[in-house]
Amino acid sequence: MNDEWRFHWRKQLVWGILFIAFGVLVLMDRAGMVEVDLDLARIWHYWPVLLVVIGLTQMIPPTTPRHFLRGLWHIFFAGWWYVSFQHVWGLSFADTWPALLVVWGLSLVTRPLLYRAISNNKE
Questions:
Q1: How far is CA 14 from CA 24, 56, 60, in A?
Q2: pTM given for the model
Q3: Is 32 helix (H, G, I), strand (E, B) or coil?
Q4: Is 90 exceeded by the pLDDT of residue 38?
């Protein structure tokens, strides 16, 4: 099995587990077993968590440098978005947008290093 095939199945497994967990939680709420606040406006407030899940899915070994860096990017972007638009620590988009440039530059610098490290581990 190659890395792309493993990545596809790993991604499918993670999303399947998340859908099952969410479905069970909603069913338990409807049955009166637990009380869950399913207000869409409140849930939408935490949408960056989906980007973190996507990022972690891409970073779980075995992976490729491209998937690993994409995973890191998703996790950073989710954190940045949440901090910037929820004004965590008093920060806003105007204060934090340069962080996107820094992380983009870091990903360009580290990509060749990751390719070398991962190709050495496969040999």
A1: 15, 10, 11
A2: 0.68
A3: coil
A4: no
